[in-house]
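Entry type: protein chain
Record version: 2
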Amino acid sequence: MVLIINCFRCGFLKTITSLEMKAIDLNATYLGVSPIQLMENAGRAVAEEVAGRFDKNASVTVLAGQGRNGGDGMVAARHLACQGVDVSIVLVGSEERISDPNVSLNWNAVKRMTSTIKVRIARDSQLIPTAEGSIVVDALLGTGIKGKITQPYLDAVKAINRSDAFSV
């Protein structure tokens, strides 16, 4: 798996392998930056970028997986909702399968924001919605993915690819 980091502001483009990303995460932990801080910073940065590039009246759908990338998306959803953006989040998979405590913490926070975030759970492919809104945030899978993408993630990826929304 290869991660491509693209800085919209300066045009910087860097390719990072999953092994390099794991080393970056371990180094951050060694230096005292916790996984929850990394998740908060990543999600907030996505929210700031989306809010800075698009009209405040835009609607955002976050498709979140059960892992740390999903946690980043949950944080982004929280921050966007706090800025008054119309946000929906779809957890792809089952909340019982969220094993990372940091992801659980963010999922529980998002679930409580019932007046500002529309929350849905897509336990199987039949429940994957069409990616609605003008912007869709792909927070499905990160660098930990191995092998082929399986259901319900495969149908979620297809929904993103079929959507006319701007994909982040």
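Comment: DSSP finds five helices and seven strands in the chain.
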